[in-house]
Amino acid sequence: MVTASKTGDAWYGNFPSVFSVFQSTSWWFDTGANVHVCSDINMFTSYQVTRDSFVMMGNGSHASVLGTGTVDLKFTSRKIVQLKNVQHVPSMKNNLVSGTLLLRDGFKVVLESNKVVVSKHGQFIGKGYECGGLFRFFLSDFSNKSVNHICGGVDDIANVWHSRLCHINSGLMNRLSCMSLIPSFTITKDSKCHSCVQSKQPRKPHKASEE
Q1: Cα(149)–Cα(70) distance, rounded to whole angstroms?
Q2: Architecture of domain 5-137
Q3: Whether pTM exceeds 0.85
C-alpha cells in the first residue's frame, strides 16, 4: 500500500481508493476498496499517527488519514480476523474491509445469493449479508477501548499520548519523552483536555428537599 504525501504543490505516490460510503457503524466487505478504512479510533488495538496522508474516494475527492493501525474483527462465530494497516479516516461514514487485502492475506471469500462467507484453510470464519449494495459482516459488539482517545484532535500527538496514558499531566509526559519512552511532542499554549476539565469540575450540592 502506498499513501500520498504533499510537498509544496506537488503530489507524490498512488492514492488508496475507496468507492462506497454509507452511514453505518458496522463493518462492510467492499471489493472496490484497496485499503481497510475505519472511522472510529476506539476500534484500534494499535495506532500510529500519520501526517499528509489521504485516501481517494470514488468521486475523485480526497479524505484525510489521521493514523493507521490494527483492528480486530470478532465475528459471531467467535473467530477473530486481525486487520492491519487500517486507515483512520474520521470523515468516512462507514468502516470498510478491503476485499483485495482480505484475499491477499489468504482468506477465501465466497459471494452467493445475498450472502458472503469468509473462510481460511477450509475453516469457517464468518459471514455477512447484502444490505444497501454492500455486504455487512455479522460481528460481535466492539468492546475494545485499547486506544483511549477522547480529547483534542488526532493530528496532535501530545493529545494522543495524553489519552493513551490515562490523562497524565504534561510534566510526566515530558519526562517520558526525555527517556525516549514516547515520541517527542509540543503542547500548544493554553491547550486543554476537555475530559480532564470536565472531570475536575466541582459539583454543587443538591438543595435539601423540603419535608
Answers
A1: 15
A2: Beta Barrel (2.40)
A3: no
